[in-house]
Amino acid sequence: MAEADLHNLVPTIGEVNGDRSNMRFGMVNTPVHEYGACKVSVSFEERTFQPPPHRRGDIARTYWYMRDTYGIEISRQQQQLFTAWAHQDPVDEWELERNRRIAAAQGTANTYVGEVAIQQTPARLPTTSALSLRSESNSGVSCSVRKTCGAMASCEEAMFHLNQCGNGRLDGDSDGVPCESICR
User: What is the model's pTM?
Assistant: First the structure.
């Protein structure tokens, strides 16, 4: 049933879908394979697939729906990444319309996409602070290089990498505070 669920089916370019295979979602750092005008990147070395910015929240909300509906497991690191992506790419009009059409045809809606869900943070996920939601261009930091705590210049940068880039390794004790030596 999960494979045939319309919320889980999205048109894509065959080569992109084939290359993504079962790679994890994330921000790629090593040499990538790009697909012309299709704004995705794949790192075969890291086994990571980076979707375009305007689809990242859609992917997060689809995974949360699949988790809740079919018991699909999502790692803590992917949960953190999806939380950041959902904040960066909120529900848009097309996603709402698509959800309405699928609900009419299939009889089930994705509760993470509905009008009420726009104002809510998905259940069981940490709230992202306003500090970490600044865009890369405004904050001067970027997800282009995956950093360790020792390479962080400030707590703000560590928060950005935890919440925006999904770098869960920075929060060793899972308390929502990265790099505790600099974020006291």
Answer: 0.64
